[in-house]
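This section describes the prediction task in plain terms. A model, or a person checking by hand, is given the sequence of a single protein chain and must write out its three-dimensional structure as a string of tokens. No templates, partner chains or ligands are provided. The sample shown here is typical of the held-out split.
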Amino acid sequence: MTWRPRLAEGTAPVLVVLLLLLIGLAITGPAYAEPSGYLALLKRAAPLMILAIGQYFVIVSGGFDLSVGALVTAGVVIAARLINGEESATAGVILLVLGFGLLVGLINGLVTTKLLVPSFIVTLGMLLVLDGAIFLWTGGAPRGALSTGFRTFGRGTLDVPVLGEVPWSVLILLAILVAAALFMRGGTGRALVAVGDNEAAVRLSGGQVHRLRMLAFILSGLLAAVAAILLGGFAGVSAQVGNGLEFRAITAVVLGGVLLGGGRGSVVAAAAGALSLEALFALLNLLGVSGALESAVQGVIIIAAVAYASLGSGARQRLRWWPKQRSSAQPTQPASS
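The expected answer:
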């Protein structure tokens, strides 16, 4: 039997949208006439794509993580304050930022699963806690400076044979995307999707629902910390660097066809949704559309994507029941004497 690659449900539409947006960029922007323009787009989109992958794990298992934007800001501010320009502190602070992301994800997961507080409320509370703590610590003006080694991951490039100079952020993104895709093909990844689809069935079959959901939040926190490292290197130190990223990540996941409430979706499609969102904003900028409309565009995308998913689910349900209704409506033949 020959193996044939098959796209997961919901992946094809977002890939079509992405292709159309890339064509639009090629027509509108002279910078996109060369492959370097698309590589620069991928470099800018890498942190959001990594955030979307983490958000995917939570959403597909039936939850939300609204704390990732504040976690990104906290990671950048903490790193700048602790490194303060000292190159020797870079490695230790990077590990600390990653550990902080894991800790925040663990707390979100524990409160959600053990105290049975809805994830929307838990992560919204964590967002407010992190925002308040960072403002109290910095007074609204971050101090310190990131080292050259820290900023390399967001700004630097690596000479790759055949491909030439490739940004570190793109290489990190590809490694995370491949690892996430392989993870979702395994037993734990499939169980994570099953939790979002039918929690009771997973529990009855012996699955550890709480552990799976906790794992989703931990992965989301870890990937938010990775995104903080990349954004710190790319954009520098700012107390607003993560503002709104949680909603962008959710928009990207929904645009990728992932069902809010869990149970359906592809991690590759979620990442493609993030790249599509970044390409859309780049195209709107080239067309001279005000950046103030970005929030409105995100809102329209969320509403349209959820409505499309709901209509598609309803249509599939009607098609599933139609043959049964048709057969039950046929009169029974009288028995022959």
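For orientation: The radius of gyration is 22 Å.
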